[in-house]
Amino acid sequence: MRNLLICLFLLVCALLLFQGCTQKKETVIELPNSFKSPAIEDWAVIQEPYTAFYEEPSEFSGIASNARRGDVLKVEGRKIVDKKHIWLKFERGWIQDSVVIIYSNELKARKAAAVLEN
Hints:
This protein is α+β, with helices and mostly antiparallel strands and 118 residues long. Helix content is 27%, strand content 33%. The strands form three sheets. The protein has a four-stranded antiparallel β-sheet with strand order 1-6-7-8, with no helix packed on it. A three-stranded antiparallel β-sheet has the order 5-2-9, with helices on one face. It is elongated and about 85 Å long.
């Protein structure tokens, strides 16, 4: 009986060993180009003296509106273009992320905007 338990224990250990050594398939998560998490509400402060909002996330699309340094805007979405450019969606249009500073809440963004304006 004791030999049977030892054999059973060794069999279970061997199975666990082989299970742990098998190659596991990587899971790749593909995010869509336009993504927005409802749990995250980012705010942006324009850091350039003047910048344009575009109708689409492309510098070749039409200009929808303009913004000035210190403007505080709620980020409505994001889009990754060419795996290196991130465009941010606002109520007034699209802007590249390089012309804004992102903050986690509106209060931080407004305080930063006040510093930029002075």
